[in-house]
Write a structure and sequence with these properties.
By secondary structure, this protein is α+β, with helices and mostly antiparallel strands. It contains 9 helices and 22 strands. It has 2 domains: 229 residues, no CATH class; 168 residues, no CATH class. It starts with a helix and ends in a 7-residue tail after the last helix.
Length: 474
């Protein structure tokens, strides 16, 4: 009986578990099917991506890109290598060893004025298959750019980017000259979100000024770009971040100093009327402690020479030191537009015991060498105390009766906030400036003579009046 019961029981259990085993087998089958399907789908996607990459590479090879670029600018373009990465969103096109040179280069084998080690373009994926590059971001690495501002105001770099048609369409069909034009590149500028240039060099020669600016470790970031060609007056701005070292030399080889700059600014990119590239920058850039200037810059040496007017009050100025450091805010606040650099806040350097400050609205036209600088030469507080002592000793030659009047004139002319001050104005060619003092300086020797004459005249007049009965009480 027990064996029968056990047998029936085992049979019942088998009957009970059999549907469950069948369900498990069915579940395993669906899992396998899903895994196999996913593998097939993934493999197909991979094969399609590889095939798309091959097609894109063929469609966007370097010969095609060179041809398209040369249709837009008057430059001879070379590209060493093109890579396209589709396994990311957005897709990326990488160009290596890019160079731009004039179409009619004068010297065979001469270094191209624009060389780019690498250019990364973030682009729309679908556009690649239609031979169209929708650029959203550009990153340029290892650029080496050489340019010259000519005496006529043109630049060697500008000629590389002129339109082959010589004229471009402006607002409402107006014609403008050369280069990249927002009205001809509407789709490009509306999709561009940012531009970065890093680890680069710029060599800029100001032909008429005789100044060479060699910039290294250059970092430029253009972001928050807001451009709508249909509303260019309202939407034509971007944020600009700049950093790098600027070495300043004369074209004759004299080292004028080093500036280590960093800071942010706002920029207007295009001329709203013509649509041509016309950057206007308003910025405030800090200067590191390593920044310095050679005092042999013409405007400094000539300004120093005009301190000789202080000899009139008995002050002798020491020999001009070789180096100057930056004072006040240790920063450059400036506005740039159409080659003109305008000072927004006083820009000063320390030369020995003196602070030389170019005041607000002083300007330099970089292409033509013209400038106008209103400047202050201020002695340090310690030096001013010494100079005041020398001046007061000189005042002792003036009769007491008129000395207070001369002292009052000197205070107004030569001192501000307890510091000795000389105002000057510089204009004309920056390389050969015309400098003149602003205001007169009392000549103590002449003041003493005039005071003595006046006193003598007054005493003589009083004596004569008394002698002739002029002081009889009437």
């Amino acid at each position: 009986m027990q064996g029968l019961i056990k047998g029936l029981s085992d049979c019942g259990l088998r009957l009970q578990y059999e549907p469950m085993r069948r369900k498990r087998r069915e579940k395993m089958t669906w899992k396998k099917r899903l895994i196999v399907g996913a593998m097939i789908l993934g493999g197909s996607f991979f094969l399609l991506a590889v095939a798309a990459g091959v097609i894109a590479q063929r469609l966007m090879d370097k010969d095609y890109l060179i041809e398209e670029i040369e249709k837009s600018i008057t430059s001879q373009v070379e590209i060493g290598e093109v890579d396209i990465s589709l396994f990311r969103l957005p897709a990326k096109v990488t160009l290596r060893d890019v160079s731009l040179a004039p179409l009619r280069a004068g010297v065979s084998g001469a270094k191209p004025p624009v060389q780019l080690e690498q250019v990364d373009l973030s682009v729309g994926l679908w556009g690649l298959f239609n031979r169209h590059v929708d650029v959203t971001n550009i990153t340029i690495r290892g650029a080496e750019i050489t340019a010259t501002y000519r005496e006529d105001g043109s630049t060697t770099l500008g000629t590389l980017f002129e339109s082959p048609d010589e004229t471009v369409r402006g607002k409402s069909g107006a014609k403008g000259r050369g280069g990249f034009n927002v009205y001809d590149q509407e789709e490009f500028v509306t999709t561009l979100g940012g531009l970065i240039i890093e680890n680069s060099k710029v060599d800029l020669t100001l032909e008429n000024t005789g100044l060479r600016l060699r910039c290294s470790d250059v970092y430029i970031e253009l972001s928050s770009i807001r451009i709508d060609p249909a509303k260019l007056e309202e939407t034509n701005t971007a944020k600009l971040k700049i950093g790098g070292k600027v070495r300043m030399d004369s074209t004759e080889g004299r080292h004028y100093g080093d500036l280590y700059l960093s800071g942010q600014s706002t920029a207007r990119l295009f001329n709203p009327q013509t649509g041509s590239t016309e950057p206007e920058v308003e910025g405030d850039f800090s200067l590191s402690e390593e920044s310095w200037l050679n005092t042999r810059i013409p405007v400094v040496t000539k300004a120093w020479g005009h301190l000789s007017i202080l000899e009139k009050v008995g002050v002798n100025i020491a020999t001009l030191p070789d180096e100057a450091s930056f004072g006040r805010s240790e920063a450059i606040a400036a506005h740039y537009h159409l080659g003109r650099l305008t000072v927004r806040k006083p820009l000063s350097i320390w030369v020995g015991d003196w602070e030389f400050a170019a005041m607000e609205d002083s300007w330099l036209q970089m292409e033509t060498d013209q400038h106008e600088v209103n400047a202050e030469l201020l002695a340090s507080k310690d030096a001013s105390v010494r100079f005041r002592s020398v001046i007061m000793k000189g005042l002792e030659m003036i009769p007491k009766e008129v000395r207070s009047m001369v002292v009052g004139d000197l205070e107004k002319q030569l001192f501000r906030d307890e510091r000795l001050l000389v105002n000057i104005r510089s204009s004309g060619d920056f390389s050969d400036p015309k400098i003149r003092p602003v205001g007169a300086v009392v000549d103590l020797a002449e003041a003493a003579k005039e005071a003595a004459k006046k006193l003598l005249k007054e005493k003589a007049s009083g004596f004569l009046n008394g002698l002739l009965g002029g002081d009889d009480g009437r």
